Amino acid sequence: MSRNGVQWSSKPRFPQTHYVDSRIYTDRAVFEDEKEKIFRPSWIVACHESEIPGAFDYRLFNHPSGVPLIIVRGDDARVRAFYNICPHRGNTILYDPSGNARRMTCIFHQWSFDTRGNCVDISRSEQGYQDRFRKEDASLREVRCEVGCGGFAWVNLTDDCVPLREFIGSAMDILEPYMQEPMEVFHFHKAHVRTNFKLWHDTNSEFYHDFLHYFNRITGMLQPGYFDRKYTGFPNGHATVGSMQIQYDKYEGSKERAVGWPGLAPGGWFMVDVFPGMTFNLRTSVLRIDTAIPLGPNEVIIEFRGLGLKRDTPEERRQRVFDHNMIWGPFGRNLHEDLLGVHGQGRAMREGTDSRWVIQGREEGSTIHDEIGMRHYYAEWSRRMGRPAYDPYGEGKPESVRAAA
Amino acid sequence: MVNSEQRQAIEDVVYRSCLALDTRDWKGFLDLCDESFRYTITAYSPEIRKDMTWLEQDKNGMDTLFTNLPRHNSDHSPITRHATVYTVEVDEAKNEATVVSALQVFRTQLDGGATELFAVGRLHDTVRLDHSGVKLAKRVVRLDTRLLGYGYHVPF
To answer: How close is the nearest chain A Cα to the Cα of B55, in Å?
Structure first.
């Protein structure tokens, strides 16, 4: 029997931890709050060290909070991050998404900076500024940057943030044994989708949606061990998913991933979801990492990277690329389905559609179809935002309490 | 030097391949391909400063990809390929021609019929010329467009 308007709007009959108010996916004010409380204080993957292998190599990154960044390897081999904003007239300093720049020079008035963030030249400085303003007053704004967890360059916009290791805790321990060898990015592309960034992370935080993927049903869900995979939650909202042996040869056109990964059991597959919008996905022969960069409450850019080992032979690399593309490339079988799924959520949840609740109520002993991964995420989200995801506007509180707040 | 009759036949196979894929006539497309056919989609990433391969299949692989399509959840919006053959160079010794065509791909929404430019790039085809006719031996789709939204399951 269908439901009327009152029934549709009524809170789900689950504990409050098991559903969220869908307005957290559409409200501009919530999104602005997220930029300050979620993204600015979190460590975010900006790029991989293999993208900036040499001195003066740089990479641009649009931080989820909106700040444009330059990630650059200095003459001392250290990786640093700076605002890509000229301190003079606020112009963009570097335009190309990557390159090599011994001097980073703003095209507007030729102010120039070195890779340690020092301003090294102000054109016609003495004539215009006399002794009132000097190069030393015009350094770039540096932000915290650490290279870790497999050679990724992480950034944090909060000066007094905790170290990366403390933020990650032991969440990456499950992957660390497989990230000891130098890796290399061989694939990069972005997807622009009209949906909320959290919905993408949700998709990476639950496997119940394997029903969406023919490939995963055939090679995983129908195979032994699938329902034994377990979610484990970690402090700061991170979560991991245990492995199984994927039967790749069960999908016509696919075959056993012979190239494998050092130390990983054949067909193995580990995942780590890092709060607030990154996923490390080691699937037998390829490491994929997603970084969600929201542009608005209902608009996100997702950066996809595929990595192999730096020491790969051409044959090994070609096989990894093939394995990657089979399911995860822009024409891959799974990625299109996942993106279509969250695109559909974006359509159904956009402002004014009267979408009200998202249910995360499955409990199966923390195994693969349990929705504990999402519940764990929203517990952290609620803590950081200072508002519960199930009642983001305090509507469940008495009027006097809401007014006081 | 390619004669006009030869060029006509070569252009014909390029255009027919687009028509076949547009109409999801997979058998028709594969019939235009040599047994040694290889299909590749590539793109250059200025972000990582590397050439990337996004899809690579032989003729059997393409056949399997097409066969598996109904088992997957896909965007059903039709796409239209616009190709313009720019250059044809015949290698008489090899009985081959290399063909470079401009490619634009448009996607038309099922609801309302709005059409958007989906991708631009080039087709780099190798065409086999022998007694059995003109066949596609190799196709490399070199994409300039790399932002493909929620993507697509059918090769360009």
So the answer is: 6
